[in-house]
Amino acid sequence: METKEAFRIAVQSLWANKLRSVLTLLGVVIGVASVIAVVTLINGANSYVATKINKQGADVFTISQQPAFTTSYKEYLKFQKRKVIGLDQYHAIQQGCTLCKEVGALQSTTGKIVYGTQSSTDTQIRGYTAYMPEMQNLDIAEGRSLTQSDEEHATRVCIVGSDIEENLLKFADPIGKEIRVDGVPCTIVGLGEKQGKTLGQSQDNWVAIPLTAYQKTYGTKKSVTIYAKAGSGAAAMQAASDQGRVIMRQIRHDRPGEDDSFTLETSSALAGLFSTISNYIGGVAVAIAAISLVVGGVVIMNIMLVSVTERTREIGVRKALGARRNDVLLQFLMESGTLSLIGGIFGVIGGVVVAKAVSILLGFPAEIALWSVFVGLFVALSTGVFFGVYPARKAAELDPIVALRSDF
Is 0.85 surpassed by the pTM of this model? Predict the structure, then answer.
């Protein structure tokens, strides 16, 4: 029997039992869709983080009270007990880190912004030093950034995100307008470039003021995060971060042999950590999805066994007319493989649709990996062939005389 003929017979058989075929496909569809959706979302998240870090620069390291990611509440409490990082330590890095090209610091909180009769809540209020907007990958669309003079004199000026312009100022020219940041008047001197949403949360609902002005309003008890930019290349990054670490250990009186009482992180380390975490999550999700594929494969095997039983007489006739064992084997393997491959195709489509829906509704970045599509189809086809071997062998080994005597 030719492969083309076997495929035609397989399609005819599946079409003759449409409802049964659709129900059989569900396990494969769900399994493949889950894999495609998870891989698409994780690939998008990794690309998003990599893009942000690359645009910010792989030559930036941060010094903070605690790391960006903590794996347990116990660790979080441990880091919270550390001494805060104050402006004096920022100035020490700024003056003492000769290998750092630029040094900045920031603090942030959430508060209320008012303009006329309009107001917004849960707006992120950032305290920036002069170079922080550039070091945080923040482009100024209109007006100017914060200056050294603003920082030194604690000037009541600010840069705003596009949400403030759209929702409070109603697209009026923001430059020169006065808003109230938690009740304190502030003149807008710059408008940040629109950044969109991530995980459903707007990245443009913020106001940035000079860090010195920020601390006049909110106090100095909370820790600042220090950003430092080294020269290009891994060696320059290593040398600058080592120098920054030595300065911080001296200021904070960390004893030789003791762990740092602060956290120093590089952009590449953060990207690697995020990639590791997302891969673990993806691995777990794929493992769960694999269960659906196994269930789908078992269902396919059961249905193929039923099909063999129903078509026993047909198999006997084909063998009596000269069909060989391999012809029958190929026919049923083609049927189970076609069934699972169709499930894989619908699973790929479903997975992409789910990922894109999540991206649109929640703002989660999604990027389709072409390799995942081929892997999904291959796994689906392999599942059908693997679980179709036993029913196919059972059909191929039927004695034609016994099969012709069947009542079916």
Answer: no
